[in-house]
C-alpha cells in the first residue's frame, strides 16, 4: 500500500453513484481500489458498509468498467458462497456491479490487530505465554488464537482462499453488552473482548481454489502479517496453525506445504 | 379501506413504498386475471406471502426494482417496476418461473401487495382505498418494522427455491430455546437470500 501515490483532492470529494449521491455518508477508509463508507441500507436500522470502486481515470473507460464489474462480482459471489456454506463473513445486502458498488452487512467490533493491542495494553505479555499458560489466566488469548485458526480452516475447507489475510482483515465481532441482558455464562471469560466471533472481511482478492499451495500462501501471508503487527507473538501464532491443522481434513497437508512456502519466501528475500 | 404501511428506503426518501398484507384472501383468481389482462388499475406487485421470509426479503427486490427503474436509461428486465419486484425475488432469470413461485396464484390466500409511489397521486390513502375495494380478504396491520411480513412464510418452500439445503439450520444446540433458534435460522437464511438476489443474473 505504501507505493500508492497520495490521492488528489478529486478523490476525497468523490461523487458517489445513485442512490448514494446526496446521502450523508461517513467515509471509513480509502484504499487503493475502493472507498468504504458506513451507512444504512433497506431500512434505517440496518447499518452497512458501502464499498465503491470509483472509475480510474488512467484506464480506458470501457476496460475500467469491465474490470470493476468483474472484481465486484467476484467478491460478492465468494461472500455469498461463504455465507451459504456457513463461514462467518459479512452478508451481501446489495450490489450494482455496473455502477461499481457493493453493500455489505455492518460488523460491529474491532479486528485481530486492535484486539491483541488491547490485550497487551491491559497487561498481556507475549513473552510470558509459555505452554503452561494455556489453562491459566491467559487461556482466553490462546482460545482466541485457536478461533482464528479454525476460521481460516473453515474458509479453506469450502474451497476459498482469501488472498489478503492480515490481522486487519480478521474482525472480532463484539458480543459484550449487546441487546437484552444475556444469561451469565457459568464461567464468564476474564477478557470478554477476546471471545467474539471471528469474521473474515475484504474478499477483494479471494479466489475459489482447493490447491494446497494457495492455501499455504494464505497462511504465510497471515504469518507475516502477525510478525509485522505483533513481533514477539510467534509462539502465540503457532497456536493459530495448530488449530488450523485440526480444523478440517487436509489442514495438516497445508501446514506441510507452508514449510516450503516459508523457505521460498526466505530465499527470495535473501536475493531481494 | 385496507391497512397500508409506508416504508421509506434509505437513499430513496422521495419514493415511498406502500405495502399491504392480507390473509384469508378469497378472490386470488380475479386479482390474478387483472394482472394477466394488464389492467392499469392493478399495477401492483402481488406476492404470495408464504414466500416472504422477513421484511428485508421483501425490501431488497423492492429497492432494486426502484433503483433500476430510476436509472438512466432504465435497466428493468421485466415489463414494469412492479413485475420486476417479483422477478428479482427469484434466484434465476426466468420471469415465468418467478411468477409461479412468488407471484399470486389461484390458490393464494395470504397476499402481500406492493406499490411504488413513483408519481405523486399514488399515496398510502389511494392504495388503501383501492385495495380495500378490490381484495376480498382480511387486512392485516403491518408494524413500523414490518415484522408481520414474514409471519405467513413457509420456511421449507423458501429453502427449496433458493436451494439452501440445511444452510443456517440450527444444529439442535442444547439449552437454546426453540424461539431463539427459529429467529437465528431465519436470520441466517435471510443473509444468504439477500446475497443470492444481489448476484442474480450477473
Ligand atoms: N462489514 C464490515 N463491517 C464493519 N467494518 C468493516 C466492514 N468491512 C470493512 N470494514 C472496515 O473498513 C475497512 C476497509 O474495508 P476493506 O478492507 O473491505 O476495504 P478495501 O478498500 O478493499 O481494503 P484494502 O484497501 O485494505 O484492500 C476495514 O479495515 C474495516 O475497518
TrEMBL record, chain A:
It comes from the Eukaryota. One of its GO terms (cellular component) is chromosome, telomeric region. Its EC number is 2.7.11.1. Gene3D superfamilies: Phosphorylase Kinase, domain 1, Transferase(Phosphotransferase) domain 1. Keywords: Activator, ATP-binding, Chromosome, Cytoplasm, Hydrolase, Kinase, Nucleotide-binding, Nucleus, Phosphoprotein, Serine/threonine-protein kinase, Telomere, Transcription, Transcription regulation, Transferase, tRNA processing. GO terms for biological process: tRNA processing; tRNA threonylcarbamoyladenosine metabolic process. The keyword Hydrolase applies. Residues 22-272 form the Protein kinase domain. It is an enzyme of class 2 (transferase). It catalyses: L-threonyl-[protein] + ATP = O-phospho-L-threonyl-[protein] + ADP + H(+); L-seryl-[protein] + ATP = O-phospho-L-seryl-[protein] + ADP + H(+). GO terms for molecular function: ATP binding; hydrolase activity; protein serine/threonine kinase activity. It is found in: Chromosome, Telomere; Cytoplasm; Nucleus. InterPro entries: Kinase-like_dom_sf (IPR011009), Prot_kinase_dom (IPR000719), Tyr_kinase_AS (IPR008266). Component of the EKC/KEOPS complex that is required for the formation of a threonylcarbamoyl group on adenosine at position 37 (t(6)A37) in tRNAs that read codons beginning with adenine. The complex is probably involved in the transfer of the threonylcarbamoyl moiety of threonylcarbamoyl-AMP (TC-AMP) to the N6 group of A37. BUD32 has ATPase activity in the context of the EKC/KEOPS complex and likely plays a supporting role to the catalytic subunit KAE1. The EKC/KEOPS complex also promotes both telomere uncapping and telomere elongation. Component of the EKC/KEOPS complex composed of at least BUD32, CGI121, GON7, KAE1 and PCC1; the whole complex dimerizes. Belongs to the protein kinase superfamily. BUD32 family. This is EKC/KEOPS complex subunit BUD32. It comes from Pleomassaria siparia CBS 279.74.
Automatic annotation (TrEMBL), chain B:
InterPro entries: CGI121/TPRKB, CGI121/TPRKB_sf. Pfam families: CGI-121. Keywords: Nucleus, tRNA processing. It comes from the Eukaryota. Gene3D superfamilies: CGI121/TPRKB (3.30.2380.10). One of its GO terms (cellular component) is cytosol. It is found in: Nucleus. GO terms for biological process: tRNA threonylcarbamoyladenosine modification. Component of the EKC/KEOPS complex that is required for the formation of a threonylcarbamoyl group on adenosine at position 37 (t(6)A37) in tRNAs that read codons beginning with adenine. The complex is probably involved in the transfer of the threonylcarbamoyl moiety of threonylcarbamoyl-AMP (TC-AMP) to the N6 group of A37. CGI121 acts as an allosteric effector that regulates the t(6)A activity of the complex. The EKC/KEOPS complex also promotes both telomere uncapping and telomere elongation. The complex is required for efficient recruitment of transcriptional coactivators. Belongs to the CGI121/TPRKB family. This is EKC/KEOPS complex subunit CGI121. The lineage of its organism: Eukaryota, Fungi, Dikarya, Ascomycota, Pezizomycotina.
